Amino acid sequence: MIKKIVTYILLVVFALFFLMPIYVLLATSLKPLREVGLEKMWFLPKEPSLDGFAKAFNRLAPNLRNSFILVIPATLLSAIIGSINGYVLSKLKFRGSDLLFALVLFGMFIPYQSVLFPLIRFLQDIGLYGSLWGLILVHVVYGLPITTLIFRNYYSEVPTELIEAAGIDGAGIFRTYLKVLFPISLPGFVVVVIWQFTNIWNEFLFAVTVTSDPTKQPITVALVNLAGSQVVEWNVQMAGALLAALPTLVVYVLLGKYFLRGLLAGSVKG
Questions:
Q1: Measured between alpha carbons, how far is 136 from 74 in angstroms, rounded to an integer?
Q2: For the domain bounded by 50-267, which CATH number is listed?
Q3: Domain limits of the chain?
Q4: Model-level pTM?
């Protein structure tokens, strides 16, 4: 009995510890500027106001649009290409396929900082530096190792007899993928979409490096630039942080249960 009580007390303490920043974020975002201060950050707002959210949205709206323009195609492209890669590497074994898969996985462990200079030079050479299309290309390429891994492991659980039966019926490689594997790939796609959407939406280094024009930068970069030069409007910054976090929270709320199913279905099994 005492052990259970101690366990619950520790769980409550840890939960409160992790929820404190969220409380400060919400409380500060709802305060008018005159109530904002370090000595008052733990207090609830006396006169709740949405002015911080209005200002933050007006300043971040163009960058919020840029983030959606970036995230949606980058997530879908990396998911589709990763799905095809996973199919080829799991069901169409060929000489050197394991080595190729190992080389693809190696891309997961390359630090972003080490490739910035050659990456910028490459984007300049193909005319995509400073554009959202260049940033989309970067995230698609850097998302392929993890999406390929997820789909390869997911498709490895599919009986090979299904692929062989499709081949006997005259289906080619791509028809087999479209008619046999793609219809049962929903759990894998959910895992990949949540993973890629969250990573791309929250990524900062590539965003600030590739897109130097403020009008083309995603919301993560704009959020850093939201601080004023003279007076820091903490309520506006906190409201901006909530707005920036809202899309990923919505994705998790809507697809969270499918994410768990995808994991249990073998999409990240070794």
A1: 5
A2: 1.10.3720.10
A3: 1-49, 50-267
A4: 0.86
